[in-house]
Design a protein that fits this description.
mainly alpha; 17 helices; 0% strand; globular
């Protein structure tokens, strides 16, 4: 007998997935579409490398530090309500980015974008987890993973077309119609769900401490190597480290922590998040450097540099759902071991792209190898994280994993350019940076082999059949 909830093959089921994909997709899209715009932004706003790093990291900073809080707000006040509110705020911040006249204004608007995305990203997956029938959640999460992943991959291509055709500012304007469609679908077709109020608590102190920790550390990592404000950099580093220590201590003492550290006692949960950190750190710095390298050193237009990643989009569109189905049959361990290693090889190959190289012989091989690796990794990784937590922690588990991926990109973009001396020697730094990124991704595969299990206790048998933990459907 079928359980309560929405059927995957129903019209409403398709609408729910559409709303979730468009909502999370606009945030993921914005995380990558800006890459293609960076050279144009630098010229138009007279922004140096450190400022361009901040255009990316400002968004990742607020998004990564507030994702878990956003998930808690959705559990308490309603996932659809917080999701829609996040989309409204994201649209307003995107408009602010589009009309920015200085790099400082753009960076401030990007911070607000990250805050808004922190409200809508965890809600997108939580809406699926709480709306679909138990037996259909595996297929729903596979569809969400693949389609949301495509939005990340298509970002540089779409951004490049808008930048070349109109202006880099339209890379932000495109968020407005997408958000409007997602809002309309959510309000009309997505049921409101929330967790039991007595089981939800807003950990404001934890959110503030984590934001201070990431902000201080990232500021020091970006501005320190650039030689800006020695005393301020030292103070920021001290505040960041002290806040991080205070955050860990606070989370062990508060009754309802923002990040329940007990979850990390699960070897699979910790391992899956470690794989996430390594793979997304590699992907973030790889895409950041590749798009700038293609435009500045190889003479690609913004559209051409974005289109160079089109095979990645096609590969994920065609095979992500199949990779999720394969992981359900054989378990996630093998895909999460092989996938990151293949992705690492692809990233390292892209590091060998030199001025004068043709697309077919220089860029395409690395893109194809990277595509295979990511396609094998994304859906099994999401399922492994959710399979490692119980029903009551599904939302917080997915929010933590999303936060880990954003923080990974944030730290990679802050650390690796300084580590390889990118400011003084971009060509040499590019190659070294991509090699480091390749090693990082491969390390993710090793971590997957060491920590991921293909079976879970009988109590969580539902996970094996669906790719997600059993989660009781609650109507508003």
């Amino acid at each position: 007998m079928a359980s309560q909830g929405i059927a995957y093959d129903s019209a409403q089921g398709r609408w729910v997935i559409a709303a979730a994909v468009l909502g999370s997709g606009v945030a993921f899209l914005d995380g990558t579409v800006v890459n293609a715009a960076l050279p144009a932004i630098g010229k138009d706003l007279d922004a140096g490398l450190a400022s361009l790093e901040w255009v990316l990291t400002a968004y990742l900073l607020t998004l990564g530090s507030l994702l878990v809080l956003g998930g808690s707000l959705g559990d308490l006040y309603g996932r659809r309500r917080v999701f829609v509110a996040g989309l409204f705020a994201f649209s307003a911040a995107s408009l602010g980015c589009a009309v920015a006249t200085t790099s400082a204004i753009l960076i401030a608007a990007r911070c607000v974008q990250g805050v808004a995305a922190a409200a809508l990203v965890p809600g997108s997956l939580a809406m699926i987890a709480s709306s679909f029938r138990v037996e259909d959640r595996g297929r729903a999460i596979g569809a969400w993973s693949g389609l949301a992943g495509i939005s990340t991959a298509i970002g540089p291509f779409l951004g490049g077309w808008l930048i070349d055709s109109v202006s880099w500012r339209f890379a932000f304007v495109i968020n407005l119609p997408i958000s409007a469609v997602a809002i309309a679908i959510a309000l009309r077709h997505v049921p409101e769900t929330r967790a039991d109020e007595e089981g939800v608590h807003i950990d404001g102190r934890g959110a503030v401490l984590l934001s201070l920790a990431l902000g201080g550390i990232v500021y020091a990592l970006i501005e320190g190597p650039a030689g800006h404000g020695g005393a301020v950099v030292i103070a920021a580093a001290i505040v960041g480290v002290a806040s991080l220590i205070a955050f860990v201590i606070a989370e062990t003492r508060v009754e309802h922590p923002m990040v329940p550290l007990d979850l990390f006692r699960s070897r699979q949960f910790s391992g899956a998040n470690a794989v996430t950190f390594a793979v997304y750190a590699a992907l973030s710095i790889g895409m950041f450097l590749l798009v700038v390298h293609l435009q500045n050193d190889l003479g690609y237009s913004a559209l051409e540099s974005g289109a160079s990643l089109l095979p990645l989009t096609v590969m994920m569109l065609l095979f992500s759902a199949r990779a999720g189905a394969l992981a359900q049959r054989i378990g996630p361990r093998l895909p999460m071991t092989v996938g990151p290693v293949i992705a690492g090889v692809g990233v390292a190959l892209l590091g060998e792209v030199k001025p004068g190289a043709t697309y077919l012989t220089g860029v395409l091989p690395g893109v194809l190898v990277l595509s295979v690796g990511l396609t094998l990794t994304v859906a099994p990784l999401t399922a492994a994280v959710l399979a490692a937590v119980d029903d009551q922690h599904t939302g917080i588990g997915s929010a933590i994993n999303n936060a880990v991926s954003r923080i990974a990109g944030l730290l990679a973009i802050a650390v690796i350019p300084a580590l390889v001396g990118l400011d003084s020697n971009f060509a040499g730094g590019y190659r070294s940076g991509l090699r480091i990124a390749g090693v990082l991704a491969a390390v993710g595969g090793v971590l997957g082999y060491l920590t991921i299990r293909d079976s879970v206790p009988v109590a969580n048998a539902t996970v094996l059949a669906t790719g997600m933990p059993c989660h009781e459907h609650r109507a508003a």
